[in-house]
Structures are given as structure tokens and as C-alpha cells.
Amino acid sequence: MSRSQATFLPFSYWAISWAVVLLLLLAHAWDAHLSGPLVSAFFIAAALNYAGLFLLPLVLAPLFGAAAKRPLGSRAAHALSFTLIVLWSSAVQLGLLLDLLVFQLYGFHLNGFVWNLVTTPGGLESLGADASAWLMVMAAALVVLAANAVLLGLTLRRATGAAQRLFRVSTVVGVLLICAVGERLVYGVSHFTGRSSVLKAANAIPFYQPTTFRHAAQALGFTFSARHAGSVRAATSALAYPRVPLQLTPPPRLPNIVWLVAESLRADALDENVMPATSAFARTGLRFDQHYSSGNGTRMGLFGMFYGLYGSDWFPMLAAHQQPVLMDVLQRLDYRIEAWSSARFSYPEFSRTVFAGLPADVLHDQATGQGWERDRSNVDSLLGFIRQASSAPDRRPFMAFMFFESPHARYYFPPVNAIRKPYLEDFNYATMSLTRDIELIRNRYLNACNHLDSQFGRVFSALSAQGLLDNTIVVVTGDHGEEFMEKGRWGHNSSFVEEQVRTPLVLRMPGVAPGRVSSMSSHLDLPATLLARLGVRNDPADLSLGSDLLGAGPARTTTVVSDWSSVAWIGPDYKAVYPLRSTGLSDAGIFAPNDSRLPNAGSVRAAHVADLRTLLRGITRFHRSVR
Q1: Residue 22 in contact with residue 48, Cβ under 8 Å?
Q2: Looking at the whole model, is its pTM more than 0.85?
Q3: First CA to last CA across the chain, in angstroms?
Q4: How far apart are CA 557 and CA 561, in angstroms?
Q5: How far apart are CA 193 and CA 185, in angstroms?
Q6: How far is CA 1 from CA 65, 70, 81, 87, in A?
Q7: pLDDT for 21-73, tens place per residue?
């Protein structure tokens, strides 16, 4: 092996690898919403720059080989350099391909949420990943590794003698600097002036790291654009939750609570033809027809329905392992509490938040079998608990919670629940097409909801047969909705469109007449509603950001929905999305109630400044400032 082969990277290999990475980045052009020459030029320059940056470590591999030549010998040093180049090229290409697939399916890049999904027990299982999916990933990885190895071998063989074209470190750095300067300047100026089209284009580049000139420009006397009202900051302070001590006067007879939550249960799934048992049960209680989740994903959906707080408070509550006031009150009142999940209590981390104060032996979850099979098994156990608790000599009130998985993608169900045909029988993420198969996927989802209904029905029937309904609060809802490409996405966790954030709510309360409620309601209201029935006399604002759904106050007209890094303010005539990260400014937007983007965002925001102030007060309400 020549000295140059040990020290340098063949230009032809780098150029081909760079072209592959560039194509993977340019595939995001549709998501960048290129709206003019400047935005298009910026996006292309950023793609050129990041394609080079992602491959920059390649130039170090031959240097490691050269350094290893003396202690390892020429052959081993060559093998080390070869291996490092192939591994890094393959890792970059596979990572960007995976990012592209995730973005096309869910509307976000590989990020903290995805990392949390991968590293938390039960996380990937919650997406329906199984052995066949892992085999396909491994096969793709082997193909990419083999292709890069063959390509490097060929280019090294051809790159010999005086005609060898070598790519030196200085050349790499020089080209990247030229590509970077333009897009850095454009982004910095756009960030300062609030040019959202450029910021949105930058957001389409995976792992884009922004450069801003805010402080330098302000030091020179320039004014930061008011258009940055589209970004809000999460509270950076210590928790002050609850705000004041509890005032508790229990009623003479405490009600039992049965709380049933279904994964991905969108509002219109509660239909007579799809969920007949739940529809019939809803007629015996209160059915809320304009109900919103507190999140577009499971984490923020359940967090809001137990704490009554915005999603930005999830992170400090998780860090503190602090359970909600509602669970504190139930324990203080000596409720017999058990909970079941057909997913995992470890993902999302409900065992360290919602149920942090409960012993592990009352949290029952399992991950064997398909979702509908786990639901059936867990309902068996839940009904056994209800029989035992209701007949116990001590007559303690009980609270039973269950999280159902039947309607979670890939929407499994037994043949008896195939009420909608045809449906996608072979639901393989690698072979299905959202364009071609979405109606078949939707039918599969509705079949899964029909199975969910059968399990809800078992609980309703048992409560009725045991004469428990007269003193049991029953809550039936979903953690969030599910979109089927109505607004361009499938699933949830990707946007705040109505299909992803609307879910049914049925409340059956002892002594409350049945009916339908047409005004807006939210998961945020559930803690205040239940606490009032338990004898808590505090103003709801002391304990949460919700209201008592049975109280005498004015009907809700606005609500807030959260995801991992943003919040959406939803009012009667507009919807505003505010990122909670400084790098997420491009996610901000003003939308009509039907989720179409409003062209006059600035004037709408200016007309609703009071709403933004209310949102900020809610984000910081249960915190105290620390310096």
C-alpha cells in the first residue's frame, strides 16, 4: 500500500458518497415548502453543506490508518482505515434514510422524541416494531455496508499512480466553508427578521444547527423582529405544584372510579356502527362532542388528563418523579388503586410520573401477544379486581385504570371484528403505500376499534351486573386522535390537526343526568372535575389549568394541546402553534379551524395578544422563578 493510500481518501469514493447523501437531503425538498429563489437557493446550499459535513469524519479515517501503521503494520493499518471509512459512510446513509422515512410517516426528524423511543423499554414496541421489521432493517444495513465496501475497494484499486485523484483535508474544509458561508448568512438574517419561509426550509434539513445574529445585531442597534412573537419559552424554574395546600372535605360516600383510555381513539370512531356498546353506554352518561386531548401523542395526552397541565410541565414532573394531585388525593382517601396497560408503564414513563406514588405490584402491564390479545387478558384481570374490591369487607372505594392498545398501529383485531372490508391484510411498513392503501388502513383501524368496543362493553356489563354504576364514576376517552391523510399525515405525534387531537369523552357520574355537551372540553378538565367529586374545595386554578366540567363557570372556548416541543392554542376562530425551543421557530404558524394555514398570520396574532399572554401564564403558573 502506498503512503498516499494510507493517508488520503480517494476523491471518487468521497464524491459518490457525497452525492448519495445529497440526494437523501434533497428528498426533503417537498417538506421544505420552497417558496421562491432565495428559499430554494438557501435549501440547496444547506443541503450541499450538510452533505459534506456529515461525511467530514471520513477524512480522519485514513489519518488514523496512517498513525496505526507503525504499531500495527501496513496491512492492519490499511484494514483499519478501510473499515472506518465503510462504517461511517454506511452509518450516515442509513441514518439519513431512516430519518427520511420517519419524516415522511410522522412529520418529524430523528430527534429527542425518537431517541427516547429507542432507549426506553417498550418504546419501539409501542410503534408496532416486530421481528420482521428488525430483520428488514438488518438486511438493509448489510446491503449498504456491502455496497460501500465494494465501492471503496474499486476506487482504491483505480486510484493509483500519478493519475490518482485524492481528496485532501484542506480541500474538504475549503469546499465546506464556501458552501456554508452563504446559507449561514441567509439563515442568520432570516432569523433576525423573522423570515419564516427560510426557517421552515432549514427545519427540513436533518440535524440542522442554526446560526443567529440576534445579540450582535442588537448590540449594533438593530431591533429584533416582532414576528418572533411566534415563539414562546417553557418555564425555567422550580416546580410550585400545587400552588396552595389542599382543602379536602370528603363526601359521606366516596365514589368508585373506573377510567378507560384507548390508544389513538379519534373522535368520530365513537359511532353506532363501529362502537355500538360504547355508543349505548354514552347515552346513559354525558357525551362531550367537542372534546380535545391535551396532546397529539400518548405522553402528553395522559399527562394532561391526570395533571391538568400543559405538556411543557411533563419534563420537570418526570425529573422530580412527582405524581399528580389527583393521585395524592386518592391515596389520602385510602382508595384501593390498581392500573393495567396493554403497552408499558415504562414507556412513556408513567411509572415515574402519573403513577409514581404507587407500588410496582399494582401496575400491571404486558407486552406479549398482539394489542387486542393483551386488551382481553387485561380486562379479565381488571374485572377480577373490581369483583374483589367491591365485595371486600372493608368496603374501601376503588379506582381502576386501564390503557387499551387495540386501535394502535398496526391495528390488530380478531376475524370476528372485521366489520369493514376490504382492509389491508398484510400491514408491512416496508411494503405498504399511504397513497395506495390509506382507505384499507382506515378500515383496519375501524375493525380494531370494533374490538376495543367489545372490551369496553365487557366492563360496562360487569359494572351494571354487580350494581356498581350507581356509585361509580366511569371515564371513557382516548389518549389522542389518529389521522388518515386527511391533512397530509398518517398517525399522530406529527401535527395539531383536528384528526390527531380530537377524541371522544364519555363521563358517567352518579346523580348526573345523561346528555350531550356541545361546548368545548379538554383532557385538562378531568382532574378538576374528579377532584370536585372527591371533596376538594380548592379553586381549580390552584391545582390545574382546567375547569370542573360540571361546575357553574362559563363554558370553555379555548384549549391548549402539546407535543414533545410545541404547544398549540386552539380557539373558536383560529389555531396557533408555538415552539418551545428556540430552534423550532419555523414550526410556528397560524391556522384556521379547518387546519388550513392563514395568510394573514401577523394580523391574527396581533388581534389575539391576550391569548398569548394567557398561554404564557399557563406555562409558568405552577413554577416559581429561580436565579
Answers
A1: yes
A2: no
A3: 61
A4: 14
A5: 12
A6: 11, 14, 12, 21
A7: 999 999 988 777 777 888 888 888 899 889 988 988 887 777 776 777 777 77
